[in-house]
């Protein structure tokens, strides 16, 4: 099996009806990046920068962050990396940071909320990123954005750091793109506005689904209660794909479902053309892409969504369609 997938490495990910799909890889540590070449991923669609912070004995200095980001960029042979700024809090704890007692950590002080409340932390990370990206392409993505204002505030910090770079006669990135994770449901109803402001969007389906159904993503007792392949989730994802396309903004999805072939097929049917996933998923998902006719899948899924007749999961119907094709 692995060998079969390995053979697909240099085969372009194009559907039966000729639609090119961008397959990106998720990573969090330098060692993960070795897989970029062997999987044939076109870029690193999600680099979870918090892993470096979680493994460190204390808050990494700006210069240490810069070194890591530069090493990351150097190790992927010119392919782009989308760096996500610190996504700590909730299940991602930094032992050296004072713990805040919270009743509901998943709904609490985390990710960009910490970054904006402690701008010193976020600015030091942005400085490390911008320095490492000097003279080359740099993509920075903010996690858990819930309002347009949060994005504007984060962007303002980037602009300040860019000015400082200039002041210190350091090279800025030759091409800087800023984007957000779409993973808080409030974003679903601000897509027109946010699409005007950002350079790209990436759906964090792990959190988006957790918050849509109000189920803790790590709680086994409730985790199997709802199916991703159901009308509420698919309609939400379709809305994002439609809005991003209308605004002509690059869109990817970087949650776990992008790496599962059946779910990924449905994502293509909904209009997604870029998926970012773990290294091990790229082969199986590429095999699915090669076997999929997007036009037919789109008709099937849209018809299914228009004719939902109760029941929750659409999985059996979608699987039957995938197997028949
Ligand atoms: C997500 O929420 O889907 C995501 C990709 O980010 P993380 O799993 O790191 O929260
Ligand atoms: Mg997330």
UniProtKB/TrEMBL annotation:
Question: Which residues does UniProt assign to the signal peptide?
Answer: none
What family, per the record?
A: Belongs to the PEP-utilizing enzyme family.
Q: Which gene encodes it?
A: ptsP
Which lineage ranks, top first, belong to the organism behind this chain?
A: Bacteria, Pseudomonadati, Pseudomonadota, Alphaproteobacteria, Hyphomicrobiales
Residue numbers of the full-length protein present here: 426 to 750 of 754
- Note the superkingdom of the native organism: Bacteria
Where is this gene product found?
Cytoplasm
Protein name in UniProt: phosphoenolpyruvate--protein phosphotransferase
């Amino acid at each position: 099996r692995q060998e079969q997938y390995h053979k697909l490495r240099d085969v372009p990910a194009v559907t039966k009806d000729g639609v090119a799909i961008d397959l990106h890889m998720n990573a969090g540590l330098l060692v993960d990046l070795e897989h970029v070449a062997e999987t044939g991923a076109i870029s690193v669609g999600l680099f979870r920068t918090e892993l470096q912070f979680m493994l460190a004995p204390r808050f990494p200095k700006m210069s240490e962050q810069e070194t890591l980001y530069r090493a990351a960029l150097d190790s992927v042979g010119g392919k782009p990396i989308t760096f996500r700024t610190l996504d700590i809090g909730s299940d991602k704890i930094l032992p050296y940071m004072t713990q805040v007692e919270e009743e509901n950590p998943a709904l609490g002080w985390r990710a960009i909320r910490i970054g904006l409340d402690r701008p010193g932390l976020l600015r030091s990370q942005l400085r490390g990123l911008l320095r490492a990206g000097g003279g080359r392409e740099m993509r920075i993505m903010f996690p858990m954005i819930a309002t347009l204002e949060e994005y504007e505030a984060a962007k303002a910090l980037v602009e300040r750091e860019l000015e400082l770079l200039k002041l210190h006669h350091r090279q800025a990135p030759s091409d800087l793109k800023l984007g957000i994770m779409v993973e808080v449901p409030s974003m679903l109803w601000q897509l027109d506005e946010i699409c005007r402001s950002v350079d790209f969007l990436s759906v964090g389906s792990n959190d988006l689904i957790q918050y849509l159904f109000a189920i803790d993503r790590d709680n086994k007792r409730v985790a199997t209660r709802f199916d991703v392949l159901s009308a509420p989730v698919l309609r939400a994802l379709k809305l994002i794909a439609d809005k991003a396309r209308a605004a002509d903004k690059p869109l990817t999805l970087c949650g776990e479902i992008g790496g599962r072939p059946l779910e990924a097929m449905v994502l293509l049917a909904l209009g997604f053309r870029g998926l970012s996933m773990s290294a091990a998923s790229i082969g199986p998902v590429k095999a699915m892409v090669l076997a999929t006719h997007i036009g037919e899948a789109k008709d099937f899924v849209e018809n299914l969504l228009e004719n939902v007749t109760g029941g929750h999961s659409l999985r059996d119907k979608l699987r039957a369609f995938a197997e028949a094709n």
